[in-house]
Sequence to fold (413 residues):
Amino acid sequence: MTNDVRTVTEADFADWHRALRTGFLNEPVLTAEQLEARRRQFVEGRLLGAFDNGRCVATYRSFAQEVTAVGGAPVPANAVSNVTVTPTHRRRGLLTRMMNRDLAAARERGDVVATLIAAEYPIYGRYGFGPATWTTRWTVEVPRAGLDPRWSGPQDGGRIDLVDGEDVRKLGPELYERIRRAQPGAVSRDELYWQANTGVVRFGGEWTEPFYGVYRSASGEVEGLVSYESDDNWHDKQPHNTADVNWLIAATPAAEGALWRYLCSIDWITRVKSGWRGPDDLLPFFLPDPRAARVTDHADWLWVRILDVVRALEARTYEGTGSLVLEVVDPGGPAGGRFRLEASPEGASCTPAGGTAVDLTLPVAELATVWLGDESLVRLTALGRVREEREGAARKADALFRTSGRPWCPDIF
Fold:
């Protein structure tokens, strides 16, 4: 059975969304208002669908993005999202056809990498994606944390104020840009992101207005923002409420610590759920008793697919100095070949290596896994996922690729 894979037009949009929601086991019909909000994501040529007798049975969307490389360089990326195949049309190669078409277009546009957040782990490795960042959620048991109950605000001259969504839309973009330039793995946010996360644009479901807090330093500069909600949980005439963090961003440790301290100080709050954080987040160590912060989730997050090896390796910085020859295996893909990397803290060059002797042979997915500095080539070699052609090459590569801080992507898309 053949199915037509093609770009989605305006006329297909409602049917495409029905298939999208079906694939994610959501109620398949959107209201007119929700569908109109979703049209804000429509970019001509960037939505793909598979159609069977005119009915959409598979969905795929990509959009322009930047991802921050190690060292702070913004790298052009092809962000992949909204990937589904209707249960009646599985195992027919529909995702492969959509993926291959989109990645070829991304490479031709000049995108250096592709990115996605994987709903399921086993799917995307076969397309050359590898998990490049991880994420963790904590639950803080406030009574166990050892915090001073008399706390009434930051002790560093800064202050925390509650604000509304309009303030967040004004303050958030500039603050986030400062943060993402220093955070490997962070991705760009457009105006639609801030509108969707403050209730101006509602893609689906009920909107609950959260609380927003802003931290300003002693000089008045905005250095942190938090969005959180609370439940209403009383029993035995005692409050047992939970503050559930939607997101928290901070440009300085002082701002981050003050916002967590504020959340733990709110009357009636006995538990704080952190939301998705970087795996080496400071949160537990802001508490006198770090054991009060219990890990409740830990998982892969941002997946990366290298499209241009030379530009990807030259975009990032390296903490050490050295030279490596890498054999990158990418069957039928755009990134295969032999490359010489010359790296130092002052910069890097990556060039085709021709017949030069190889140090490491690795699939393109494993190169993606180490690109942001979070994985060890020694570990991957031990697992048989990277082949060491010269003894000691994996350890030498680790000295170049590994970073002092772990990458983190604050967003889901």
